[in-house]
Write a structure and sequence with these properties.
The complex is a heterodimer of chains A (242) and B (403). Chain A is of the alpha/beta class and 242 residues long. In chain A, the strands form two sheets. Chain A has a six-stranded mixed sheet with strand order 6-7-8-3-9-10, sandwiched between helices. A four-stranded antiparallel sheet of chain A has the order 2-1-4-5, covered by helices on one side. The N and C termini of chain A lie far apart (40 Å). Chain B has 13 helices and twelve strands. The chains are: A alpha/beta (242), B alpha+beta (403). At the A-B interface, helix 2 and helix 3 of A face helix 1, helix 10 and helix 13 of B.
């Protein structure tokens, strides 16, 4: 599904060069819920950006869904992001001057190949918005709803074009515990339906909801383990609801 | 992205910041409105001038006595043209339809206890055909009246009003320099010229009568000639020139003692002047549009900076650099086109108000409306290009990090 071979990435700051990723090798089979942990500056966000086709590695090979991404010209990357990748950000990153439904429908605007899918996309946007518990909020603007709700809208948006992977960069970083658990609940439900999810987090409790957890230290994978008993967000939420 | 998506998006973005969008458009609005207004006024004036010049007679040639130089000083017109010259032109030059000698003098016109200082014009019956003048009441004098130097005259409306009021002037006698003249007709009113001159303030009489009984001269001021076809005017002028030189016994080295002017040339000069004016206006227009365009560019650059994060989000979601470029281009173009449309509206409204209040003759030029519209669109594209390009070149990771 995802295969990283000797991924290297460095940034130049004037005369100095900072080696951020020092050879990442990683195989992620389809249906994995992977968490990436690590201290600040360890390179976890850079890794996520490379996985998300937002940045190009200096060297190494990146296969996504059987395609060698390095071989594809960066001009095409926008289409890969649009069709194969869904992003969820710490800041939610919804368009503030658009309604929630318009936000969820946004990826459809940039989809290649026109035709009937546009109408279908609108219908799908509505269904996704309902599935993350925002029935009746279609015409709200993002500033009128809570952070947790905004993040769920962002997840709905990420799912619109049915991507093969969902990438989440600190999705709970700006949320309280309850809202965080609700996001984990959505992720676990999606993962249960077979969606591959890769999530960067600095919160060990959140990382325990994934099925596999890796830790990056100083540009290398320091720890890679399967989570034996992942926490179930739905169960954690129950006492709060009761 | 479809065109509909793009226009809807720019509609949303422009209405989000209504005051800013409005102020940005103001440059284009003012530029376009002033162009539409100015062109309407100049086109209106141009139309009047052209109508009046062609009223003079499009196929008309006028012969002036040459101003003579005496030691470098230009003196009064030399008394070089005579009635015989006019007669010779009529008889000997082909393609000439009408010829009328012309002389004018200013005298007091008196009727009973009323009087008015008027210009008395001496002509022959041909003159009315050369100038397209017509008689409203009574009749024009005849060739016989000219031969006999009869004391008859025709009046313009202004003179009639002044001397007769409501009385019928036909058959009455007025005094010009104590010489009695019988009024035989009234000319059709012509109104004012473009330069505010009253064309109805006139008295017409046979040229011979005016020369002998009023002016006391043997020469005439001008000769009016009409030709069958404006295309052959130059040929006719050449022939008249040769004829008058021969009659004046001028040796080849001597200067002409007269000057021949073609009214078509005057029209050409007038329309050339108007053309120069139009070019100047176009220049002013392009300057104001450029200034408006710079305003749009400025705001678009601010907008790109402000919306860097939004650009990052769109790119992460799958917008290509081309999508971003198009979005900002459509936005700046929408702004300038809308400004252009509003400007056209205001320009037309101002023009209508002006012609209503000041009785200006105006003509809104559809050509300029179309040009303004197209140009304002082009300005939006041209000046939106740089900000849009800048937006499309942003790197998604950096754009997303922007706060």
């Amino acid at each position: 599904m995802i295969e990283l071979v000797q991924i290297m990435k460095s940034y130049a700051y004037g005369e100095h060069t900072l080696q951020v990723l020092k050879g990442i090798n990683l195989h992620i089979p389809a249906g994995t819920f992977l968490s990436i942990m690590g201290p600040s500056g360890s390179g976890k966000s850079t890794l996520l950006n490379i996985l998300g086709c937002l940045e190009r590695p200096d060297s190494g090979e990146y296969y996504l869904d059987g395609v060698l991404i390095n071989a594809i010209p960066p001009v095409e990357w926008a289409h890969i992001r649009n069709e194969k990748i869904g992003f969820v950000f710490q800041q939610f990153n919804l368009l503030q001057n658009a309604t929630l439904l318009e936000n969820v429908n946004l990826p459809a605007l940039y989809r290649r190949g026109k035709g009937n899918f546009r109408k279908a996309a609108r219908h799908r946007a509505l269904k996704l918005l309902h599935s993350v518990g925002l029935h009746g909020f279609e015409d709200y603007i993002p500033s009128k709803i809570s952070g947790g709700q905004q993040q769920r809208v962002a997840i709905a948006r990420a799912l619109l074009n049915d991507p093969v992977i969902l990438l989440a960069d600190e999705p709970t970083g700006n949320l309280d515990i309850k809202a965080s658990l609700e996001i984990m609940n959505v992720f676990q439900r999606l993962n249960g339906q077979g969606k591959t999810i890769i999530m960067v987090t600095h919160d060990p409790d959140i990382a325990e909801h994934a099925s596999r957890a890796i830790t990056i230290v100083d540009g290398r994978i320091a720890k890679d383990r399967f989570v034996e008993h992942p926490k179930i967000a739905a169960l954690e939420l129950e006492p709060a609801q009761g | 992205m479809t065109a509909r998506d793009l226009f809807y998006m720019s509609y949303r973005n422009l209405t989000r910041n209504k005051v800013r969008s409005g102020l940005t458009m103001l440059g284009i609005i003012i530029g376009v409105a002033s162009v539409i207004g100015m062109v309407a006024v100049t086109q209106g004036t141009r139309t009047i001038v052209q109508e009046q010049i062609s009223n003079l007679g499009a196929n008309m040639i006028v012969i002036f006595p040459r101003q003579l130089l005496f030691g470098g000083v230009r003196t009064e017109s030399a008394p070089s043209l005579t009635l015989e010259d006019a007669e010779a032109i009529r008889r000997q030059v082909p393609f000439v339809t009408f010829v009328s000698p012309f002389i004018s003098v200013g005298f007091q016109a008196v009727y009973t206890n009323r009087n008015r200082l008027s210009v008395i014009t001496g002509i022959t019956p041909d003159f009315q055909y050369i100038r397209n003048w017509s008689v409203a009441k009574g009749h024009f004098f005849s060739e016989k009246d000219v031969r006999l130097a009869a004391n008859v005259c025709l009046l313009g409306n202004t003179v009639v009003d002044q001397l007769f009021g409501l009385e019928d002037p036909i058959g009455k006698t007025i005094l010009l320099k104590h010489v009695p003249f019988q009024v035989i007709g009234i000319m059709t009113p012509k109104g004012q010229t473009a330069f505010g001159q009253d064309q109805d303030d006139m008295i017409l009489a046979p040229v011979t009568t005016v020369m002998r009984k009023l002016a006391g001269v043997t020469h005439i001021s001008l000769i009016f000639v009409s030709v069958t076809n404006p295309q052959i005017a130059d040929l006719v002028i050449e022939q008249i020139n040769a004829l008058l030189r021969q009659r004046g016994r001028l040796s080849p080295s001597q200067e002409d003692s007269f000057q021949i002017k073609n009214v078509t040339e005057i029209i050409e000069v007038a329309s050339k002047t108007a053309q120069v004016f139009s070019i100047l206006l176009a220049l002013v227009a392009s300057i104001s549009l450029i200034v408006g365009g710079i305003g749009i560019m400025n705001i678009m650059l601010v907008s790109v900076t402000e919306r860097t994060k939004e650009i990052g989000i769109r790119m992460a979601i799958g917008a290509t650099p081309g999508d971003i470029l198009r979005q900002f281009l459509v936005e700046s173009m929408s702004m300038s086109l809308l400004g252009g449309i509003i400007g056209i509206g205001i320009g037309m409204l101002a023009t209508a108000t002006l012609s209503y209040l000041l009785h200006f003759t105006t003509r809104v030029s559809m050509l300029y409306v179309a040009i303004s519209f197209i140009f304002s669109g082009l300005v939006g594209i041209l000046f939106g290009m740089y900000p849009a390009y800048k937006a499309s070149r942003l790197r998604p990771v950096e754009a997303l990090r922007h706060e």
